[in-house]
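Hi F.,

I've been meaning to write this up properly since the lab meeting, where we talked about keeping a consistent format for the predictions we share between groups. The idea is simple: the sequence comes first, exactly as it goes in, then the C-alpha cells exactly as they come out, then a line or two of notes. No screenshots and no reformatting. I'm using this chain as the first example so we have something concrete to point to.
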Amino acid sequence: MRRAAYLLSLAFAAGLAAFALAAGLAPAAGIPSAQAAPDLDAAAARLAERMQADRRWLHAHAELSLREHETQAYLRRELAALPGLKLVEGEWGTGLVALVRGGKPGPLVAWRADMDALPLSEATGLGFACTRRDTVTGGRETGVMHACGHDIHMAVGLGLARLASELRGELPGTLMLVFQPAEEVGAGAMQMIAAGLFAEGRRPKSILALHVHPTLDVGQLGYCPGWATANVDGFVLTVKGDGGHGAYPHRGADPVTLAAEMVLAFQTLVAREIDVNHNAVISVGRIEGGAKSNVIPNEVLIEATVRSQDDSTRQALADKVTRTVNGLAAAAGAPAPALEYYFGTAAGYNDPAIVKQVMAVVERVLGPAAAQSYLPGMGGEDFAYYGREVPGFQFRLGTASPGGVGAAAGLHTASYTPDEAALEIGLRVAAAALWDQLERGD
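Output, unedited:
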C-alpha cells in the first residue's frame, strides 16, 4: 500500500513538472535548475591567449583621457565581430556600450572597464611598451603609459564579451559592457551616465568592475564593503598681502607667514573639528610665492587636495576651509584671500549585499584564501558614480607575481608591470560573479 502511494506521488510530481515545462514556467526562486551551469573556467582558459594579445595591443597604443580614439576603434572592431552582441549607439564620446542578450530570461547586469592611460614615459623595458608621445596642459610633451592597469581592465572586458557571446544560449539575462573613457581625470563615468547609459530600459540590477592591484598576488582578490574610495576635492588659494622690504615687515601684511599659518591651521582643522570616526585628509601639495629673500611678495599661491568619504564631512570641510582662510586673513589685517574650492570625484561605496554575494563566488572559484579584505582608502575612482545610480561593487585583482623578488612597482609608476596570469583569473571571477548576479534574478 505504501509503495503504491509512493509511486503515485512520483507520478504526480512528474506530471506537474511536465506541465510546468509545457507551459514555459521557470523553476521557483531558490530551486536550482536541473541543467548544469556552463563551465566558465574552461571558457576563460580558452580565451586567455586572446586576452593577452588584446592587452599587449592596448598597452602599446595607450592614449590619454578623452583622446582614446585608436583604443575605441580597436574595441569596436573586436566587439562588432561577436555573434549576438549589439553595440549601443549613443553620445559616448570615446567610450562604448554593448549588450549581449541571453537565450534565457533574466535581469540586466553591467560590467565596467576604463580605457585611458597616464602621462608617463614608460620604463618597463617590455617588448610592447608604449612609445607614444603627447602633450598635456601648458603644451608640455610627455610619454603615455597604461600605468594604472586599464589595459588589463579592457582585456578582461573583451574576454567577458567573447565568453558571453559564446555562451549566450545559456546566459540567464542580459550583460551590458561599459567601456568608459577618462577615468583618470574623473570625467568619464559622469559623461556616460549623462549621455543616457541607464536610460531606455538599460538600468541594471547591479554593476561590477575590477581594479588591478600590485599589493595582492595573482590569485588574490581584495574587497571592502561600504565606503571604499574617497571624495577627491581640493582648492587653489591665493593669500594676499602687502609687498615690501624684508627688513620692514611691520609696514604691511606678510602673505608668506600668513600662508604658513593657514597650512598649519588646515591640519588642526582636521584633527580638532572633524569627527575621528569620519576619514578626512587635507594635504597641501604646492606653495609658491616670492622671488628674493629680502622682498616680501604681494601674494602666495597654495594648492591642496581634500579627501573625505561621507557627504556631510565633504561639505563640512569646504565650509571650514573657507572660514579658516578668511578668519586668519582678517586677524592679520590682510586683504581677503581668493579661494577657488572645487568638488571632484565622489567617494565610492561598495554595496555590502553585492560584496557578500560576489565574494562567496570568489571563494567557490578560487578558494577561501583568495579573499583579502582591505580598509577604506583615500584614493579616488569615478566608478563611484555608477554606484550612486545602482548597487555596485569594484574589487581588487592581484597582479603581483607570487614569490617575486623585491617589491612590485606601484600603480601610476613608470615601471608598473602586472603579471599577465591575472588576466585569466580576472575573467574567471568576473564571469562567475556576473553569471551569479543574473541567476539571482531581479
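Notes:
Residues 1-34 have pLDDT under 50 and may be disordered.
The longest helix spans residues 2-23.

If this format works for you, I'll send the rest the same way.

G.
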